[in-house]
Design brief:
The chain is α+β, with helices and mostly antiparallel strands. The chain has two domains: about 110 residues, AhpD-like (Up-down Bundle); about 130 residues, Jelly Rolls (Sandwich), CATH 2.60.120.10. About 35% of the residues lie in helices and about 25% in strands. The strands form four sheets. A seven-stranded antiparallel beta sheet has the order 1-12-9-14-5-4-2, with no helix packed on it. Helix 4 runs antiparallel to helix 5, helix 5 crosses helix 7 and helix 6 packs antiparallel against helix 7. The longest helix has 16 residues. It is elongated and about 75 Å long. The two termini are about 20 Å apart.
Length: about 280
């Protein structure tokens, strides 16, 4: 089954305007800590205006996007110093994955300069290490700022059917239930089957991050925001996050008769590790 890219995220945003993210104030003290006595006005402009006001307008432009713009702007000027590394670290905290930063710097190299890209890559490798904790609370909070739906609470009730940590937030509780399910990087649910004597099944709509859906006997399908998947009753499948990215989808239960859910074995670790 092939995922379809459609403008469902925009439609859902219009359907649920109350879920839009509010502005979150960014607190920065580097200017005051370093130059508070020597150049107090510069420190004020850096901490209170640049970060306290401009960066804090994350209701207009998400923190993740601001980080990408800043990293590319600094790289294009050849400013590959400690401040550049700080912005790389901020970009990672704001949800930019190793795969994404590699593509961002590669794309920018054609416009900013090849030697600048080499320098940026050397520093990026120090920030996006294999052993980095991509599922930290700070990363979760930053990722949440990119969504129009809440992340919710840990999915403790179904934790035994998941590898890794997941979160659920009910969006619609009456009529046709809609739940936002968020997976930390590397998290996925077990193989399972939605059963029904008539109708039934499930629809998934990706609203954030990057993940995968796979039916038994078929290749995994990558999911990005705007992609949707309809899963008929009786189809064995799994879905979850990519190894290096948070992932969120709306789970919409299709009405059916005598509906139930059968949980099966976990996804083969060796097969999952082949995904990028």
């Amino acid at each position: 089954m092939k995922a379809k890219t459609i403008s469902l995220v925009l439609i859902l945003a219009l359907m649920f305007p109350f879920m839009a993210k509010s502005q979150v104030k960014i607190k920065q003290t580097a200017g005051h800590d370093t130059l508070g006595e020597f150049a107090p006005e510069f420190a004020h402009l850096n901490d209170d205006i640049l970060f306290g006001e401009v960066w804090s307008r994350n209701d207009l432009l998400p923190l993740r996007d601001r980080s990408i713009v800043t990293v590319v702007a600094l790289m294009s000027q050849g400013l590959i110093d400690s401040s550049f590394k700080s912005h790389l670290e901020m970009a990672k905290k704001n949800g930019v994955t190793k795969t994404e930063i590699a593509e961002i710097l590669t794309h920018a190299a054609f416009y900013a300069g090849w030697s600048k890209a080499w320098a940026a890559f050397r520093m990026a490798k120090e920030v996006w290490t294999e052993n980095a904790d991509s599922s930290s609370v700070a990363s979760l909070e930053a990722y949440g700022q990119t969504l129009i739906f809440p992340i919710g609470k840990p999915n403790d009730a179904y934790a035994k059917y998941f590898v890794g940590q997941s979160y659920t937030a009910p969006i619609v509780t009456e009529g046709v239930p809609v739940v936002n399910v968020t997976f930390e990087p590397g998290c996925r649910n077990n193989w399972h089957i939605h059963k029904a004597t008539k109708g039934g099944g499930q629809t998934l709509i990706c609203v954030g991050g990057r993940g995968y859906y796979q039916e038994w006997g078929k290749e995994p399908v990558e999911l990005r925001p705007g992609d949707s998947v309809y899963i008929p009753a009786g189809v064995k499948h799994w879905h979850g996050a990519a190894p290096d990215s948070w992932f969120s989808h709306l789970a919409i239960e299709v009405p059916g008769e005598n509906s139930s859910n059968e949980w099966l074995e976990s996804v083969n670790e060796q097969e999952y590790s082949k995904l990028k």
